[in-house]
Amino acid sequence: MPHTALVTHLESAFGARHTLIEQLHGEDTDCYRLFHGSTEGADGLTVDRYGDLLLVQSFHTALDDATLSVLQNYYAGVLPDLTLVYNDRSAANSRIANALDETAMQVASAPRVATELGVRYAIQARHAGQDPWLFLDLRAARRHLMKIVAGKSLLNLFAYTCGVGTAAGKAGAAFVMNVDFAESALKVGKENARLNALPHRPRFIKSDVFPALRQLAGIGQPTRVRGKRMPPFPELKETRFDVVFLDPPAYAKSAFGVVDTVHDYPALFKPALLATAPGGTLICCNNAAKAERAAWLDQLERSARKAGRPIVDVQWIAPDGDFPSFDDNPPLKVVALTV
Asked: What does each C-alpha distance from 220 to 153, 191, 204, 310 come to in angstroms?
């Protein structure tokens, strides 16, 4: 793409965010998407601010030095004093492909702190994984959660770095349980809890979500299935939570089950529903672009009725305006269900 055209796209995107950025700064937020290339003129290019970090990522084609200079110069003019780090993720499975020299790697791997809605989060541009430690498109859902969770209990499933759990703790949740299989992600979650000096220490459960959720829901998880011994998992007591947050990957497979948010969301939804207290809130996320919103909700409603726990209220939570979509039907769908 010609550099003049790219600058035009960057200017248009920044102008479209003017009111939102003012709102976010007023909410004590310094992390947001500045450029969403798939809908703003440069497919596969994203530019995110995380505190003093300007994170540039390309998912289709690697950027050359001249293009990176254009990006650096443009944002230095509108948001000065940000440090640019570039991750080329155009390789298979979105793996970061561009090597950095020692000095640049020290900058990219330096620990940083970004703030969203008054909550502090640990951030690194480069780390052992691939994805940023805080998914910005989930901000609206975290905002909604913070408004309803004071004095309540929260179960945070597929917790990753526990952004949702940390926000809930900051907002006054009485008890937070974060469940994720990755020790490295939970370690970041513990750092997030420390950064915010939460009044109640969250619980961090290293486990495949299926056995943890089945136990909490009262279904139970056998140690042997069809004569085969299952991998070890922590034992948990049956528990009902005031709020359950369910944010699975689009597809994943383990010895305990298959996560498929397009074809079989109820495999997760039913036990999550059973772990939600009567009158509680179950917040469901679906990141699969192929999942159509109305059909997905119909699937959830049918599953809830079959489980004897019908949905009594539905509230859709749309991403903030820094994640625009062509048809007002963004890939990330979030719905808060009163059950």
From this structure: 21, 31, 20, 22
